[in-house]
Amino acid sequence: MSEHILFLTGKLAEKQLHGILAKMQPDFTYTVLQLGVKVAALMTAEMIARRLHDTLGADRILVPGRCRGDLQVLSEQLGVPVSRGPEELKDLPQFFGKKAQQIDISQYAVKIFAEITDAPHLSVGQIIQQAQYYRQNGADVIDIGCLPSTAFPHMEEAIQALKQDGFLVSVDSLANEDLLRGGKAGADYLLSLHESSLWIADEVAATPILIPEQHEDLASLDRAIAVLQAKNRAFIVDPILDPIHFGFTASIVRYHQVRQRHPEVEMMLGVGNITELTHADTVGMNALLLGICSELDINHILATEVSKHACRAIKEADVARRIMYAAKSQQTLPKHINPGLMALHETAPFPYQQEEIQELAAQIKDPSFRIQVSSDGVHVFNRDGFYSATDPFDFFPNLHVETDGGHAFYLGVELARAEIAWQLGKRFTQDQALNWGCATQVTESTVDLHTFKPAGTTLKK
After folding, report:
1. 203 and 306: one domain?
2. Contact, 302 vs 270, CB < 8 A?
């Protein structure tokens, strides 16, 4: 017997909800009930409890996504599970599809080594602070970067402080002395050893990351691998990723060759030569690089956040590794798994076209402004008119807020967001911050817009 769902809605959305459900041809039966409220988004749990006297044989009740209040309490009062649907009616088909899939991104295979590149110039306290920030963003190992010809007298103290705080630590240096000191101080990994410096691995317990003796000398890498395998030592291999136009494609080929030669060895890919040295948004770079890692079973990356444009690289890599793991586990493309990497654009930015918005606007009987975005531009409407533009300044003559500072401020904020959403192809929802995925430090506005929004200014439907 199929599930019967009761959909609660408002007057303005009732007709459209019927149409969407009919087109879905769902595997459940349903009833649509209009509760006597004009705008569905203004529905609350308390209002539903007062107005809903018959659940009409429903196994589950679905309320609008913006419905406020405690739905658990409402479920207990009605004796039927109550849950929120999507914020946009047009997202109902996708909503039920995602419900069925329930894709888990809690798992990952790739460990992130996050490098503190200027550690010699930082105090131990500053190193700990930076490490904690990296850990919050997904780092598994804190890489202590040494600098050429730069004294690092507090290296041992920094390593021990990190270890006491529960961190795994690697030391990154071109100097054998630094690597030896780091290993003896308790570092877990050493970046990097090659055929001529393998003796350091005999002196310390740290796991070495192996690189070629000379940049493209895979034969030397093969020999170093053989030496450590003969000693039954753990190690990680890094064939070295080069920047674009300085050997990038050839270096990708090297990674593939090493994997073919050594199917079982652990490998590392240093992503910084791409994310740091390419002036483009790093979200897509990390997605692609972690996709390469997933295909080649590379389970370690070295990431940095030196350049200002790469300031979210650790966080992006964390999301990317989880998405790629989920996609690989399900043998599917890395699509429709999680929106965290969709920073600038969205898969379905404009749920309603201008004609549909105009149909809604024709039903509005109050003076409160609604703002929606379609592929044609930004639309502002109330009972007194419907206005469309691609430049928010064009709306000013029709809004009549010259003497109402609070209202003008509120509309200015919302129209600016709407313009950005239209320009980039992002989803705009009135009274909500734009969603920038993992590309921002804070993803939700900390300002209550109702402080500036006069009474009577409502949300979209």
Report:
1. yes
2. yes
What's the pTM? Answer: 0.82
276 and 405 share a domain? no
Enter the tokens of residue 440: 């921002």
Q: Residue 5 contacts by C-beta under 8 Å, 6 or more apart in sequence?
A: 28, 29, 30, 31, 58, 59, 60, 61, 62
Q: By three-state DSSP, how is residue 261 classified?
A: helix
Domain of residue 387 covers: 354-451
Who has greater pLDDT, 342 or 2? 342
Looking up residue 28, the CATH number of its domain turns out to be 3.40.50.11600
CA distance 87 to 65: 4
Digit-coded pLDDT (tens) for 215-254? 889 999 999 999 999 999 999 999 999 999 999 999 999 9
Which of 67, 101, 135 marks a domain boundary? Answer: 101
Provide the b/e sequence for 296-311 (b: ≥16 CB within 10 Å). bebbbbbbbbeeeebe
Residue with tokens 């483009």: 280
Q: What is the tally of structural domains in the chain?
A: 3
**E strand or H helix that includes residue 83:** strand 82-84
